Amino acid sequence: MNNHNSTVPAVTRLIEAFHRLPGVGPKTAQRYTYHLIKMPEEIAKEFSEAVLGIKEKITFCNLCSNISQEEICLLCSNSNRDNSKICVVEEPLDIVPIERTRAYNGLYQVLHGVISPMNGIGPENLKIDKLLERIKSQNIEEIIIATNPKLEGEATAMYIQNLVGPLKIKITRLARGLPSGSDIEYADDSTLEHALNSRSEI
Amino acid sequence: MSPSKPEIYTSTGIVIKINNLGEADRIITLITPNFGLIRGVAKSARKTVSKLGGHFDILRYVNFSIRETKSISQLSQATTIYGYKKIRTDLNLFFQTSYISEIAEKFSMENNANLRLFNLLKNTLDHIEEFGFTESLLLFFELKILELNGFAPELYKCVESENILEPGNHYYSPERGGLIDFKFSNLKANLTLLPANLNTIKYMRFLSKSSMEKINNLSIDEIYEKQASRILKVQIQNIIDRKLKSEKFINKKL
């Protein structure tokens, strides 16, 4: 990057660092940097320590592959959670909205991606083997597949279903249908079809 | 060349790739009949109430609007024309069509209409949706996409001597783009020479002259099919100068 109107190398370096973040363009990176320059030193220090802390302290849970500060994450080590259920998600970030619902009290398995042939990502690149290990070693009764309802998420769900199916464990998929506040007029055929198939009596 | 584009226009296209952008947007890559490869942003497509997200998914044939901007174009008003349900619900078909889409993407150019390439892609997907996948269909697609882009393999003359080939076993050179007479085996030192059996050559010639409907019930010995497959895959790799990422998934039986 050469267009960062700054003759101060330290400023240019920070702008470039912010620009590497997803969704941060050169202008936003510049704004963040100049905001940090104006910040009191102790807050800026706290900010930089928080960034460093992410790399130094964060690891992946040995069981569910979620981000964690310990070998076993807080969710897996919580004895109040229902350890007979595993919800399979694509990314650690997907756990947050599910937890926010307070409707699920089981465990998770983070795949760290989905099967995506065009990006060269196959089942062997995901944490599916960890899921199988847990199914075989723990008393799991249900696998809830919560991959995104896109073609690649569906393909990953199908793959897991093929793999886990013979193990005689209940496999469920998050329901699909019309989201609250949406218009039927704009729904795609696949969503409408799922909504019709999963209709419920009122 | 493509017709000159107004600032806002509508088109049909097949979605072949999606990538997340920023907080809730997606970059959508489509192959269109009149404008070639199109890459555009579908704003907020990742949000659950998005009117676009459901339509802009891989392997959907859609109608959409596009607004040209100084940076990346913006996509809107998408509706699905056809969703390829059978392909979407079969893991093996998904892998096979991913490879087909990736080849089509590599041979497509932005702002460069290639109606015949679009039709080939769409007809192949339609055919798979209706009749299923066969190795012959994939080889037919590979051969036709090479032909459409001016890389038709030379299957009748020796590319070294330019003489008509006698019936028999010969070689195929991806660098030269055609068959090489068996007697030039000394060229192995400088060229990649793939074995091309007489039956493989006949099979490739038949595919080259054939139509999609005719290859439906085509039955050929697996040895020749594999040989033709290797020839075409190495040829494509040689032209695009890289190995296709989805190639390793084609024969994954799940």
Topology of this structure?
The complex is a heterodimer of chains A (202) and B (254).
Chain A: H1 9-19, H2 26-38, H3 41-57, E1 59-60, E2 67-68, H4 74-77, E3 82-89, H5 95-101, E4 106-110, H6 128-137, E5 142-145, H7 151-164, E6 170-173, H8 189-197
Parallel strand pairs in A: 3-4, 3-5, 5-6
Antiparallel strand pairs in A: 1-2
Helix pairs in contact in A: 1-2
Chain B: E1 8-21, E2 25-32, E3 36-42, E4 61-67, E5 73-82, H1 85-88, H2 91-106, H3 115-131, H4 135-148, E6 170-173, E7 178-180, E8 194-196, H5 198-209, H6 222-240
Parallel strand pairs in B: 3-5
Antiparallel strand pairs in B: 1-2, 1-4, 2-3, 4-5, 6-7, 6-8
If you had to describe this structure to a student in words, what would you say it looks like?
The complex is a heterodimer of chains A (202) and B (254). Helices cover 42% and strands 12% of the residues of chain A. In chain A, helix 1 (9-19) crosses helix 2. The mean pLDDT of chain A is 90. In chain A, strand 3 (82-89), helix 5 and strand 4 (106-110) form a beta-alpha-beta unit. Chain A has eight helices and six strands, in the order H-H-H-E-E-H-E-H-E-H-E-H-E-H. Chain A is globular and about 65 Å long. By secondary structure, chain A is an alpha/beta fold. A four-stranded parallel β-sheet of chain A has the order 4-3-5-6, with helices on one face. Chain A has a two-stranded antiparallel ribbon with strand order 1-2. Chain B is α+β, with helices and mostly antiparallel strands and 254 residues long. Chain B has two domains: 8-105, OB fold (Dihydrolipoamide Acetyltransferase, E2P) (Beta Barrel), CATH 2.40.50; 134-242, no CATH class. Helix content of chain B is 32%, strand content 22%. Chain B has six helices and eight strands, in the order βββββααααβββαα. Chain B has helices spanning 85-88, 91-106, 115-131, 135-148, 198-209, 222-240, and strands at 8-21, 25-32, 36-42, 61-67, 73-82, 170-173, 178-180, 194-196. The longest helix of chain B has 19 residues, at 222-240. Chain A binds chain B through residues 22-23, 117-120, 122, 150-152, 154-155, 158-159, 162, 179-183, 186-191, and chain B through 16-18, 20-23, 48-49, 51, 54-55, 57-59, 79-80, 83, 85, 88-89, 91, 94-95, 98-99, 101-102, 105, 245-246, 248-249, 252, 254.
